[in-house]
Design brief:
Blueprint (H helix, E strand, L loop, with lengths): L2 H24 L4 H15 L4 E4 L3 E2 L2 E2 L11 H7 L8 H6 L6 E4 L10 E7 L7 H10 L9 E7 L10 E6 L10
Parallel strand pairs: 5-6
Antiparallel strand pairs: 1-4, 2-3, 4-5, 6-7
Helix pairs in contact: 1-2
Length: 180
């Protein structure tokens, strides 16, 4: 399956979700409710893969980003270095490094890590910086090597029928090691 085919399947799943479950967007339900239903539509188009929400395992270990490996700008670090009691529940959940939706094969990594998806509602007050950072790390071949990443901003409320914005991320080739 090519990266373009993965993208097409996600776009088709998104359209089917908006047709069947648009009331979730119109009524501005929680992001977790929305991503769960979107994952159900994605599963139809990836029958040979597992489709999971907020999956937190990498084989026998935790599936997350090693914060020590993340190069955060000082401003971004300051923003996310707040004490936990200062965060409201939505902000706390958004700091999770677990992806919203993944298409993969459990207990296996590359090449079976096909798609990683982060979703935000258009009225979210939570910064998108961390979502983009996560997608960059999850599509990094030296990390999990997901072939395609998608950052989706979904219109809600009266604008729920408007087209979503999708920013694509793709695995880049690993850096070549120079021989001396």
């Amino acid at each position: 399956m090519t990266n373009e085919e993965i993208k097409q399947k996600l776009c088709l799943s998104l359209e089917e979700f908006r047709t069947a479950d648009g009331d979730l967007l119109r009524r501005n339900l929680s992001e977790r409710c929305i991503t769960h239903q979107l994952a159900n539509h994605i599963k139809v188009h990836f029958p040979e893969s597992h489709v999971d929400c907020e999956y937190n395992r990498n084989k026998d270990g935790s599936k997350d980003i090693d914060v020590a490996q993340v190069d955060l700008s000082d401003a971004l670090f300051e923003k996310y270095a707040k004490r936990l009691e200062d965060l409201n529940p939505e902000e706390f959940l958004s700091l999770s490094t677990y992806p919203d939706i993944i298409v993969h094969r459990r207990e296996v990594n590359m090449p079976d890590n096909l798609l990683v998806v982060e979703v935000k509602k258009d009225n979210s007050q939570v910064s998108v910086d961390l979502d983009r950072l996560k997608l960059g790390k999850f599509t990094d071949p030296d990390s999990y090597g997901y072939r395609v990443g998608a950052f989706i901003i979904l219109p809600t409320g009266d604008a729920w029928q408007d087209d979503p914005d999708i920013e694509w991320f793709e695995t880049r080739a690993p850096a070549k090691v120079r021989e001396s």
